Amino acid sequence: MANTKPSAKTVDTSASALQSSLNTLVQNYRATTLTRTKLIDCFLLVLVASGVLQFAYRILITGYPLNAFFGSFGGTVGQFVLLAGLRAQTAPDTIGEFKGTSQERAFAEFCAASIVLHLFMYNFLG
């Protein structure tokens, strides 16, 4: 069998190319993304971290009140989905796809759906 192990020079080149790509991505994101969209993205990251922590707690420590886990994890996933929909409706790149919906209406629908979601969560947490 031939040795297909990459050389150190190839690994360094691909690592520097990856680093350059990530730097370009971050610079373009900072320069072209609106502040409100960045805020939504931060909240999405918080929800992902919360969901991972809840799931890890359930697996590693205990899942005794199973209905509490379902309520909290389902609420986290539901809020993520609602927020991703709000981001899609309010992002400047996708305005043409949602011609009949203003940004104010999208936010009002997000708030109403969040209230229904929290009532669902409250029902499960009991």
TrEMBL record:
Q: Name one GO biological process term.
A: protein N-linked glycosylation
Q: In which pathway does it act?
A: Protein modification; protein glycosylation
Q: Does the keyword field hold Phosphoprotein?
A: no
Query: Which cell locations does it reside in?
Result: Endoplasmic reticulum membrane
| InterPro entries membership | DAD/Ost2 (IPR003038)
A Pfam family assignment? DAD
- Record's superkingdom? Eukaryota
Q: TM spans, by residue? A: 39-60, 66-86, 106-125
Q: Does the keyword Isomerase apply?
A: no
Any one GO CC term of the record: oligosaccharyltransferase complex
Q: Membrane topology for this entry?
A: Multi-pass membrane protein
- Residues forming coiled coils: none
Keywords for the protein's UniProt record, in alphabetical order: Endoplasmic reticulum, Membrane, Transmembrane, Transmembrane helix
What does the function comment of this entry state?
A: Subunit of the oligosaccharyl transferase (OST) complex that catalyzes the initial transfer of a defined glycan (Glc(3)Man(9)GlcNAc(2) in eukaryotes) from the lipid carrier dolichol-pyrophosphate to an asparagine residue within an Asn-X-Ser/Thr consensus motif in nascent polypeptide chains, the first step in protein N-glycosylation. N-glycosylation occurs cotranslationally and the complex associates with the Sec61 complex at the channel-forming translocon complex that mediates protein translocation across the endoplasmic reticulum (ER). All subunits are required for a maximal enzyme activity.
| PANTHER family attached to this UniProt entry | DOLICHYL-DIPHOSPHOOLIGOSACCHARIDE--PROTEIN GLYCOSYLTRANSFERASE SUBUNIT DAD1
Q: Which family does it belong to?
A: Belongs to the DAD/OST2 family.
Its name, as the record gives it, is: Dolichyl-diphosphooligosaccharide--protein glycosyltransferase subunit OST2
